[in-house]
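Researcher: Let's do a round of design. I'm pasting the structure tokens now; please hold your answer until I've finished.
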């Protein structure tokens, strides 16, 4: 009897971990991460998960040890891994938005642009990214790998740094000024190229990705349902966002119809009073788990 095929999925450890677990839950998967195990449980017998630092993830996917994974664009570029990038997973959740890698130096220092760092020392965790940025600007400098607390190194241990910044608060706390934005990064879904040539794995990867993207698409949208006087349907349609495509259903009372549509949640507080003013009644806002478009 042949062994059941399994898809090996990389789950990012660290800052992306908690949000990734939540994303899988929203997508319909019960992903359980134990503090003592690097092999999370998931309620799909055809999937095997492994918890890996995002810095290493793309390399293992490129080597085929992992079939597909979530990691940051920054670490894909930093490692130079040969992977197939399938989707940008940016979402309005912690650590799933845009993060910036910035070049910074101490406030009051003579270093204002990358050109000022010719022959100087730069500390960073992203050595490859920093080297490429310097090469693009024709600058030669000493690049040192930083094991952490990079923002505290200027001006004594380094003349400048290249470090990740999501809000800029750490830079401000350490009196650092941003010289350049080196890269803007978001979480990406990547796959091994050979795995994509396997028919079973290809289908399994695409189905998993469909559910993850469906959960992200629903993150900021809700379903509005309401009863509308038939003679006010056109007025309601004019109020709804241009991309909305309402469903209109008949009711027992021929003078009324039911309308439902998906809208951005942030629009509801302005939209609902205006809908009411046109005569809409029984307006209901409902959460959405997934949208597959």
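Researcher: That's everything. Go ahead.
Model: Designed sequence:
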């Amino acid at each position: 009897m042949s062994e059941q095929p399994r898809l090996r999925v990389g789950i990012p450890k660290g800052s992306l971990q908690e949000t990734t677990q939540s994303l899988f839950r929203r997508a319909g998967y019960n992903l359980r991460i134990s503090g003592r195990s690097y092999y999370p449980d998931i309620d799909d017998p055809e999937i095997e998960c492994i918890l890996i630092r995002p810095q290493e993830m793309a390399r293992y996917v490129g080597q085929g040890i992992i079939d597909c994974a979530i990691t940051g664009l920054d670490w894909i570029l930093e490692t130079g891994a040969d992977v197939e990038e399938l989707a940008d997973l940016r979402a309005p959740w912690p650590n799933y938005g845009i993060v910036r890698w910035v070049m910074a130096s101490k406030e009051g220092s003579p270093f204002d642009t990358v050109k000022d760092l010719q022959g100087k020392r730069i500390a960073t965790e992203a050595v490859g990214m920093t080297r490429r940025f310097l090469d693009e600007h024709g600058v030669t400098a000493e690049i040192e790998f930083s094991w952490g607390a990079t923002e505290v190194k200027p001006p004594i241990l380094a003349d400048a740094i290249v470090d990740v910044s999501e809000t800029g608060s750490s830079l401000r706390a350490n009196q650092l000024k941003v010289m350049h934005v080196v890269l803007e990064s978001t979480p990406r879904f990547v796959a091994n190229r050979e795995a994509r040539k396997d028919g079973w794995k290809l289908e399994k990867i695409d189905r998993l990705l469909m559910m993850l993207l469906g959960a992200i698409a629903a993150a900021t949208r809700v379903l509005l349902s309401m009863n509308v006087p038939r003679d006010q349907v056109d007025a309601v349609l004019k109020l709804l966002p241009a991309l909305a495509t309402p469903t209109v259903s008949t009711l027992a009372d021929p003078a009324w119809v039911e309308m439902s549509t998906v809208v951005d949640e942030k629009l509801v507080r302005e939209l609902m009073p205006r809908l009411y003013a046109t005569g809409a009644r029984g307006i209901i806002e409902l959460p959405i788990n997934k949208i597959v478009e």
